[in-house]
Design brief:
This is DNA ligase. It is a single chain. With 339 residues, this protein is α+β, with helices and mostly antiparallel strands. The chain folds into two domains: 60 residues, Helix Hairpins (Orthogonal Bundle); 258 residues, 2-Layer Sandwich (D-amino Acid Aminotransferase, Chain A, domain 1). 38% of the residues lie in helices and 21% in strands. The strands form four sheets. Strands 2-13-10-3-9 form a five-stranded mixed sheet. A four-stranded antiparallel sheet has the order 5-4-7-8. A two-stranded antiparallel sheet has the order 1-6. Strand 4 and strand 5 form a beta hairpin. Helix 1 packs antiparallel against helix 2. The longest helix has 21 residues. The chain is globular and about 55 Å long. The termini are far apart. 32% of the residues are buried. The chain binds nicotinamide-adenine-dinucleotide (NAD). Nicotinamide-adenine-dinucleotide (NAD) binds next to helix 1, helix 2, strand 3 and strand 8. The site of nicotinamide-adenine-dinucleotide has 24 residues, from helix 1, helix 2, strand 3 and strand 8.
Length: 339
């Protein structure tokens, strides 16, 4: 073949998928296990979606060990491991309005209803934690880990003042698992990094990494010096609690147990309500005392949530609507300036 093109080789989908999985698994390890990511979230999200698209186009290449089918990463052996009574899943993401429209339509079609009521709340940019209370006493707290097995970080969680060690109510539930996020407030993060600099120690890339690194210390005395905050956003197993028929009612119940919950939580009707909330929280974002990377929409009715169920790594009844990444914004601004 004299006139064959020069050796331009395109990787087969199989090779591309393998390379993407290896890359994403490495980023997962750096982010979830080492608390030390090497790329911005926007780059990670881009590769993740590329892998999802390839697997969608080539379903025969989809395997259960793909990062698109799994949550987080394996927990560190240095901590005792905790089997979650109920899996701690991730969330599917929507980055564009079209994806959100499709999410709302899927739900309306599956439930056969014209309009859905959603519970809406900020998406805290920290790390997922479950707290277990027995008869009102805090007995254990764990990280999400791979969704099924997490790390026992109870001693470290005891140093967080916002987390009640005893639920201050007359008739506490027999057993309750509170799901939420540990994070560091922006002002505490700035202060911590100033201190780190003064001591000539490594600076944290952002409040999320500072929170994760601080909570996953083997020595709780170190965690005790780090100002961490907790917000509850859901329930796992719950025994001996009042009948809770909506997510909003569950959040009000958690608030009544004096667990910190978001003031920005709300309930809205249909797609228009979601978009309005996204704009509202987007405008409030710079003034919030903590980082958020989007908002979360959940079908409010628990009966409807149960009807919708789960797929591999995330519930069908919820989605995280992400804000554009800061670095992506900067790129757009830079282009604007050039034009
Ligand atoms: P996610 O952060 O996109 O969403 C799920 C998590 O959101 C839950 O586990 C929970 O912890 C949290 N959350 C916050 N507020 C919530 C609320 N109100 N209700 C319910 N959940 C709430 O998913 P993930 O699987 O934890 O992480 C994936 C993301 O992490 C990626 O999209 C990327 O942004 C980032 N990441 C980055 C790297 C990197 O190398 N930069 C590596 C891995 C992951």
């Amino acid at each position: 073949f004299d006139n064959a093109p020069a050796t331009v080789t395109f990787a087969t989908p199989e090779v591309q998928i393998r390379q993407l999985r290896e890359q994403i698994n490495l980023y997962n390890y750096q982010y979830y296990v080492l608390d030390d990511p090497s790329v911005p979230d926007s780059e990670y999200d881009r590769l993740f979606r590329e892998l999802q698209a390839l697997e969608h186009a080539h379903p025969e290449l989809l395997t259960p060990d793909s990062p698109t089918q799994r949550v987080g990463a394996s927990p560190l052996k240095a901590f005792a491991s905790v089997q979650h009574r109920q899996a701690m899943l991730s969330l599917n993401n929507a980055f564009e309005e079209g994806e959100l429209t499709a999410f709302d339509k899927r739900i309306r079609d599956a439930l056969g209803i014209a309009q859905v009521e959603y519970a809406v709340e900020p998406k805290f940019d920290g790390l997922a934690i479950t707290l277990t209370y027995e008869n009102g006493l805090f007995v254990q707290g764990a990280t999400r880990g791979d969704g099924y097995t997490g790390e026992d970080v109870s001693s470290n969680l005891r140093t967080i003042r916002a987390i009640p060690m005893r639920l201050p109510v007359e008739n506490p539930p027999a057993l309750i698992e509170v799901r939420g996020e540990v994070l560091m407030l922006k002002r505490d993060f700035d202060k911590l990094n100033r201190q780190q600099a003064e001591r000539g120690e490594k600076l944290f890339a952002n409040p999320r990494n500072a929170a994760a690194g601080s909570l996953r210390q083997l020595d709780p005395a170190i965690t005790a010096t780090r100002p961490l905050m907790f917000f509850a956003y859901g329930l796992g197993i719950a025994e001996g609690v009042p009948q809770l028929s909506t997510h909003a009612a569950a959040m009000d119940y958690l608030a009544s147990l004096r667990l910190p919950v978001s003031d920005q939580r709300d309930t809205v009707q249909g797609l228009a309500g979601l978009l309005d909330y996204y704009t509202r929280i987007g405008a409030a974002r710079p003034n919030l005392p903590f980082d958020i990377d989007g908002v979360v929409y959940k079908v409010n009715s628990i009966a409807q949530q149960n009807e919708l169920g789960f797929v591999s790594r995330a519930p069908r009844w919820a989605v995280a609507h992400k804000f554009p990444a800061q670095e992506a914004l900067t790129e757009i601004q830079a282009i604007d300036v050039q034009v």
